[in-house]
Specification:
This is SurA N-terminal domain-containing protein. Residues 1-26 form the signal peptide. Keywords: Signal. InterPro entries: Trigger_fact/SurA_dom_sf (IPR027304). This protein has 11 helices and 10 strands. Helix content is 41%, strand content 16%. It starts with 9 loop residues before the first helix and ends in an 8-residue tail after the last strand. The chain has helices spanning 10-17, 45-58, 63-67, 71-95, 101-112, 125-136, 139-154, 180-191, 195-207, 274-284, 286-292, and strands at 34-38, 41-44, 161-169, 212-218, 238-242, 251-260, 294-296, 302-304, 309-311, 319-323. It folds into 2 domains: 34-155, no CATH class; 161-261 and 313-323. Strands 4-3-6-5-10 form a 5-stranded antiparallel β-sheet, with helices on both faces. It has a 3-stranded antiparallel β-sheet with strand order 2-1-7. Strand 8 (302-304) and strand 9 (309-311) form a beta hairpin. The protein is an alpha+beta fold.
């Protein structure tokens, strides 16, 4: 079935309200000294530590993380890139994606010319870790991964469409006790009990005046501000809870009804650019995680499917992705 992406509906109004519209495994790996296992391949703890040591040597600003006892951020950043590399390689091989060697060489040259960051503690940890990753890894390897990631996103940026129902868990709402994250996760679990029950819950939320709607259809090109969210990587008949932007308190709980990779682009949607493709790339690797399996050693935390990263604990993931019980398995 080919989805025709409709004009903007209630979900876009929600994004405007939020200010976004643009104008783990408990048991851990079984192999000794493995930081992670991806598709049966072990990533050694020593490899992660080598990259951390190299970052501390060549990027002086990372020493502020050591001073603040936050080197765990750096370790998880290195491990995330090692895991992503395995996922990218698998996806590219399966879909026969390649990149030009000249493009890899040019991007690697630019990476080698990166200037060290200020050491006065003004650089946010997220930016500091990303710079450290870019400088600690072999430039050609990072360049190739980045270019392949962009190509992965580019392949579906214009033709991917997701149809879903959603509920917004917002500050001041009637969601109940606990943090907004806890409320969103609880609501996601409720919706995941079954498709019929989910429909009744959504109807009740809509009737009660909640910020909720059914049968929304959007593409990454229509909503580039959330192209990196789990909404675009979650399979049909699954529920996802995520926060659409770190600076926004609200959480979205969505039941994905259909995920169409051959949708007809909306007439008003802008043409996808490299930034959009790069943001979307990790989302499309969610299916590769399901195919290969990713296990993270408890010393680092667990694999956060919603964030496509390594999270310190289950309560610190960027969201949840839960298959609906007794629902047909999406292809």
């Amino acid at each position: 079935m080919t989805t025709v992406i409709r004009r903007r509906g209630p979900f876009f109004a929600l994004l405007a309200v939020l200010g976004l519209v643009l104008t783990a495994c408990a048991s851990g790996p079984s192999q000794v000294n493995a930081a992670a296992i991806v598709g049966g391949k072990a990533i050694a703890v020593n490899r992660v530590q080598q990259l951390v040591d190299r970052a501390l040597e060549i990027e002086p600003a990372t020493r502020t993380l050591a001073d603040q006892r936050k080197l765990d951020l750096l370790s998880r950043g290195m491990l995330r890139q090692l895991v992503l590399h395995e996922l990218i390689e698998s996806y590219a091989a399966k879909h026969r994606l390649t990149v030009e060697s000249a493009d890899v060489t040019e991007l690697a040259r630019q990476l080698r010319e990166l200037e060290p960051l200020p050491t006065d503690g003004t650089v946010p940890p997220t930016a500091l870790v990303q710079q450290a990753v870019n400088r600690a890894f072999d430039p050609e390897a990072i360049a190739r991964d980045h270019l392949l990631m962009t190509k992965i996103g580019q392949a579906q940026a214009a033709t991917l469409a997701v149809t879903f129902d959603f509920i917004l868990i917002a500050p001041g709402g009637a969601g109940g006790a606990g943090s907004l994250r806890a409320q969103a996760v609880d609501k996601a679990r409720e919706l995941a009990q079954g498709l019929d029950q989910a429909g009744k819950i959504l109807d009740a939320e809509i009737a009660g005046g909640a910020q909720a709607a059914k049968n929304e259809t959007i593409s990454p090109a229509q909503a580039p501000e959330i192209a990196d969210s789990a909404l675009f990587g979650t399979p049909a008949n699954s529920v996802v809870a995520f926060q659409p932007g770190d600076e926004n308190a609200g959480w979205v709980v969505a039941l994905v009804r259909e995920r169409d990779t051959k949708a007809k682009p909306a007439a008003e949607a802008p043409a996808p650019d490299a930034r959009l493709s790069t943001a979307l790339g990790p989302r499309l690797l969610q299916s590769t995680v399901a195919d290969l399996g990713v296990k993270i050693s408890p010393r680092y935390g667990l694999w956060d499917l919603a964030g496509m990263t390594v999270a310190p604990s289950e309560g610190e993931t960027k969201g949840v992705v839960i298959p609906v019980k007794n629902a047909p398995v999406a292809p």
